[in-house]
Amino acid sequence: MNCEQKNHLAMEYEDATTKFSHAVTELRRKMGVSAKEAYERLDRAANEARAKSEQARLALDQHIAAHRC
């Protein structure tokens, strides 16, 4: 059985985790070599990306639990 909603949610989760990974990579790359304000901006972006990744995972998990797919 192929569930289009599950596939969509899985793609959203994959996209969110990729963006989180890139944000953390950029944060680590700039650590210790950028101005405090720039570092704080990158830190906020990484935290926002983490939160979106967690939300996407929860949406996928909830869908799977509710629809058993």
User: What is the radius of gyration computed over CA atoms, rounded to a whole number of angstroms?
Assistant: 16 Å
What do we call the CATH topology? Answer: Helix Hairpins
- Class computed from helices, strands and strand pairing: mainly alpha
Mean pLDDT: 95
Name the CATH class.
Mainly Alpha
Taken as a percent bin, the fraction of beta residues is: under 5%
Helix fraction by DSSP (H/I, runs of at least 4): over 70%
How many beta-strand elements? 0
Number of helices: 2
CATH arch. level architecture: Orthogonal Bundle
The SSE order reads HH
**Distance N to C terminus:** 8 Å
Task: Write down the overall geometry.
Answer: elongated
How is the biggest beta sheet arranged? Answer: none
Can you tell me the residue ranges where pLDDT is under 50 for at least 5 consecutive residues? none
Name the features.
69 residues, mainly alpha, Helix Hairpins
Task: Provide a concise account of the structure shown.
The protein is mostly helical and 69 residues long. It has two helices and no strands. It has one domain (4-67): Orthogonal Bundle (Helix Hairpins).
How would you characterize this protein structure?
It contains two helices and no strands. It has helices at 4-30, 36-67. Helix 1 runs antiparallel to helix 2 (36-67). The model has no long low-confidence stretch (mean pLDDT 95).
Write the layout of secondary structure elements.
Layout: H1 4-30, H2 36-67
Helix pairs in contact: 1-2
